[in-house]
Specification:
Chain lengths: 116, 108
């Protein structure tokens, strides 16, 4: 069964360093999402792509976060510089389209970021 | 604004007892609601969605628009149901808004 892949699974970095996370969605899924999940909270959407285009990045802290999906397949989320408050689980999800709307979202295993 | 509230952070029941995980939402449009589950050391996965009206692993959830609720229920809890449960709402922009989650523990 196809799954969303993410790497690395764990990342420890010092504040002010740059970090990058990678996501490979399920093949054929046009919509890709990046979520941040702080301990004790539910996931919160950071950015949503439809193919290679950003659909929603209203919650992405654009002064330090960037995301791209250049060929409309895999995606990279970058933080530069990392801050202590960025410590969280970063989840990637993907979905196909049904009836013109995004279908069920399938989640990857996440990347747990710790900023020291 | 869209908001999902799960009032119970923790819920503990005994095996065989009924379980109800509460979810209330705030949304001005016609909501599409989901329950996601995360078992220990596994990824977040869809449990059920209200539009399919199906029962998964014995769980059901009914959308009550009058009370703006989408509570998850199971008549007889099993130990393997122990997990984190998240209620989520799909907005018009196809954005999932999650609640903070309820950790369910089913004791033997």
């Amino acid at each position: 069964e196809a799954e969303v892949a993410q790497s690395p699974r764990y990342k420890i970095t010092e504040k002010s360093q740059a970090v990058a996370f990678w996501c490979d969605p399920i093949s054929g899924h046009a919509t890709l999402y990046w979520y941040r999940q702080i301990l004790g909270q539910g996931p919160e959407l950071l950015v949503q792509f439809q193919d290679e285009s950003v659909v929603d990045d209203s919650q992405l802290p654009k002064d330090r976060f960037s995301a791209e999906r250049l060929k409309g397949v895999d995606s990279t989320l970058k933080i530069q510089p990392a801050e202590l408050g960025d410590s969280a689980m970063y989840l990637c999800a993907s979905s196909s389209t049904r009836g013109g709307r995004a279908d069920t979202q399938y989640f990857g295993p996440g990347t747990r970021l710790t900023v020291l | 604004a869209q908001r999902v509230t799960q009032p119970e952070k923790l819920l503990s029941v005994f095996k065989g007892a009924p379980v109800e995980l509460k979810c209330n939402y705030s949304y001005s449009g016609s909501p599409e609601l989901f329950w996601y589950v995360q078992y220990s050391r596994q990824r977040l996965q869809l449990l059920l969605r209200h539009i399919s009206r199906e029962s998964i692993k014995g769980f059901t959830a009914d959308l009550n628009k009058g009370e703006t609720s989408f509570h998850l229920k199971k008549p007889f809890a099993q130990e393997e149901d122990s997990a984190m449960y998240y209620c989520a709402l799909l907005s018009g922009s196809e954005k999932l808004v999650f609640g903070k989650g309820t950790k369910l523990t089913v004791n033997p």
